[in-house]
Design brief:
Helix content is 69%, strand content 1%. It is mostly helical and 741 residues long.
Length: 741
């Protein structure tokens, strides 16, 4: 009897407090998405936000399955979006397993968790937790009534940063584009999603004070979007405004709108329009326009162009049509498939990890099945939203009003996904809107298991096991990231030993991160190089002052450096950066390691296999060949760089010096003359180049060495003893084919 009473009491507690805990948890999760950031982690914005999202999702999953277990039956709310979301998650799992870079697909690229399999699973579970926990329209209204003031504070903080007000003392928080979400796009995208909510409240509020408050919300939201947003958020906000206004009052019924509501809408719109014009139109004559100056100095986010993105995603789809290359692998697809004409753009030396929009991102990462699931998700929501839109025209009740508002916000969400790659914050708020809308639309549509079924107990056990498993490994990964942040702080303070120890601790906790491996490889090398630079042979001391212990330390550190670099390439073989770092490490220890330059050339060759149209890599390879006095191969790779990017001054310059040293004076002069127009005539480089060209024409001599062949470490001296064993050189160096002009 006591057991039965205890069970009944637990059931009452769950029923009484679960709704309150749920609403508080949702609000805290959204507030964390808006405002939480800390430099305790490598990625100061996304990592703490996704931690809070994960904890909330895990706790609500446990509450949900506990409720099922105590009631003796499992009741799931069914929505039209369930199957597309589950299919998307299933494709992500399969894609990760089959991916050439499974660890990156699982945990994200360079510790950017958003877009990885882990993030996709969390987003889908977050959606199902929400739709199964919302109880009524009042729950949704309560949550959004708290989110709106938070969004207002977010907009104000962004505008203050834009105006140059220093909110926090940290240097990284004093830039004009600082915002607590992590990016101006994330902030303005959230504000655009909430524009329909504010507009609806302007028209539906009966109290003048509420109309004025919401009018102020609209003004500040609009100003933040106009000044700090981009074209994707401008279109999203404008679409949300137009659709909401037209649904509330078609043109033929405009006379029925209350004057105070009409002024509450028109006033902010006129002011926003004026702010927009002033920020983009330069002042006439000697007039001053601070808004225009601020706009010109504002660091705008860089987005990969649609054409390049389409070619990259289509090429990735061609080679991996069903499952894609794996979540979070667009950066690798970018280097593999970027078109040649990309080298003619101003962004030619950048590497993008996001496509033009979310649909091309999914096509590249999750293949044809993944993009079909995502398109189905979009189509099903658009279809439901259209029905709600038309239904509101005939029935303007409160439930229909809420459905319309959420439907328009959901449409804005998908429009912005079609115009820009997504972010963590956008997905959190977007999923909240989708779940709230589907809860109101589906009503009591649910699937229920019979009483006394074993399914609730099995679900409870599975959820507990999953949460414990995720908590254990998630905790280790989070702690590893904390140690990595400490290592980065130590590097900034020039504390090499501290950085080394912290990286070792991070690597032990998370041995699957290639970033930790490459950082540790470079730290090992830096420590060895500092010893060699301080105590190695020099002009003042030809024999140096290295002790036997110093020599042993250098040997151990360099061996560890090479081993860590190799492991990084094994963990993520598609990463051009990993191969490039390994190649540079080999090159920098060529004075103390036999065959190091051979290994360097092989690693550079593998880097070029992953980034075949990168002229910088070709110049680096040419520099290695030049250092080995193989002028023919040096000339070949410098020529490759010129053919890949005909306006690349550094490639022409290196080519000229290599041709000069080979004895081709005419070719050297021609290459130098081709370089001059590509260099700013007011720069020091132009004078150096002009003097070099004059020497070639007068004396046929020059002491200049190509920049690509310059030594960068104390361990490249050819006379040093060979104390590091890098193994047997490859039988055949990975040498890419020459690039035709």
């Amino acid at each position: 009897m006591d057991d039965l009473d205890s069970l009944t009491s637990l059931r009452k507690i769950l029923n009484t407090y679960s709704s309150l805990i749920f609403k508080a948890g949702v609000v805290l999760t959204v507030l964390a998405a808006f405002f939480l950031f800390t430099n305790l982690f490598t990625e100061i914005y996304d990592t703490p936000k996704i931690l809070i999202l994960s904890i909330f999702t895990a706790l609500m999953l446990l509450f949900l399955t506990l409720r099922f277990a105590f009631s003796g039956k499992a009741v799931f709310v069914r929505t039209p979006l369930d199957i597309p979301l589950l299919l998307l998650m299933a494709v992500a799992v399969v894609s990760t397993i089959l991916s050439p870079s499974p660890y990156v697909a699982l945990l994200g690229n360079q510790l950017k968790i958003h877009g990885s399999l882990v993030s996709i699973v969390i987003y889908v579970l977050f959606y199902f937790v929400l739709v199964n926990s919302f109880k009524s329209i009042k729950d949704i209204q309560w949550i959004f009534n708290l989110i709106l003031p938070a969004a207002l504070i977010l907009a104000v903080v962004s505008l203050l940063s834009y105006a140059g007000v220093k909110i926090l003392p940290e240097p990284w928080a004093q830039t004009a584009n600082f915002t607590p979400t992590g990016s101006p796009f994330s902030t303005t995208a959230v504000l655009a999603l909430l524009v329909p909510v504010v507009v609806m409240q302007i028209f539906s509020s009966s109290k003048p004070l509420f109309i004025i408050l919401n009018s102020l919300f609209l003004l500040i939201f609009g100003a933040a979007i106009a000044l700090t947003g981009n074209w994707a958020t401008w279109i999203g906000a404008l679409l949300g405004l137009v659709l909401t206004v037209f649904a509330i009052s078609p043109i033929r019924q405009i006379s029925r709108i209350r004057p105070i509501s009409l002024m509450g809408l028109i006033g902010p719109i006129c002011l926003i329009g004026l702010i927009t014009i002033l920020s983009f139109v330069p002042p006439l004559g000697k007039a001053k326009n601070p808004l225009y100056t601020l706009s010109q100095n504002f660091p705008r986010e860089i987005q990969l162009g649609f054409v390049s993105s389409w070619k990259i995603s289509a090429s990735a789809f061609r080679d991996s049509p069903f499952w894609g290359t794996g979540p979070a692998t667009f950066a690798f697809n970018f280097t593999n498939y970027k078109p040649l004409e990309f080298n003619s753009t101003k962004l030619w030396n950048l590497r993008f990890d996001s496509a033009f929009n979310e649909y091309l991102q999914v096509l590249s990462a999750l293949g044809g099945i993944g993009v079909l699931a995502f398109l189905s998700l979009t189509a099903l929501f658009v279809s439901a939203a259209y029905k709600s839109y038309m239904s509101y025209m005939s029935d303007r009740s409160d439930p229909e009003k809420e459905r319309l508002t959420l439907a328009v916000s959901g449409l804005v969400f998908f429009v912005m996904l079609a115009l820009h790659p997504s972010t963590l914050v956008l997905w959190i708020v977007g999923i909240l809107i989708l779940a709230a809308y589907m809860t109101l639309t589906t009503g009591n549509s649910s699937t229920e298991t019979p009483r006394r079924s074993t399914i609730p107990g099995i679900l409870l056990i599975l959820s507990i096991a999953s949460v414990l498993f995720a908590g254990y490994f998630g905790g280790k990964i989070t702690l590893a990231d904390y140690h990595h942040r400490l290592a980065l702080n130590a590097v900034a303070q020039n504390q090499g030993i501290v950085a080394y120890n912290e990286l070792v601790a991070a690597e032990k906790l998370n041995p699957w991160s290639d970033l930790y491996r490459t950082d540790l490889a470079q730290t090992n090398f830096a420590l060895a190089n500092s010893i060699a630079a301080a105590k190695g042979p020099s002009e003042a001391s030809p024999s140096g002052s290295l002790t036997d212990q110093d020599k042993q330390n250098i040997q151990v550190l360099l061996q560890q450096s090479i081993n860590e670099g190799r492991i990084a390439t094994n963990l993520s073989p598609r990463s051009t950066v990993n191969w490039e770092i390994l190649a540079l490490l080999y090159r920098q220890i060529s004075g103390v390691a036999q065959n190091a330059l051979t290994f360097s050339l092989d690693s550079y060759g593998r880097a070029i296999e992953q980034d075949p149209l990168n002229p910088i890599l070709r110049v680096n390879v040419g520099g290695v060949y030049y250092a080995a006095q193989n002028y023919d191969m040096a000339i070949r790779f410098f020529t490759d760089a010129v053919n890949l990017k005909p306006d690349y001054a550094n490639a022409y310059y290196n080519l000229s010096v290599a041709l000069k040293d080979k004895g081709d004076l005419e070719g050297a002069i021609a290459a130098a003359e081709n370089t001059l127009p590509l260099v700013d005539s007011d720069s020091a480089d132009y004078k150096t180049l002009n003097d070099y060209l004059a020497d070639l024409k007068k004396t046929s001599q020059s002491e200049i060495e190509p920049p690509a062949a310059a030594d960068s470490s104390a361990l490249q001296e050819k006379g040093l003893p060979k104390v590091v064993d890098v193994g047997t050189p490859p039988a055949k160096i990975a040498t890419p084919e020459a690039i035709e002009k």
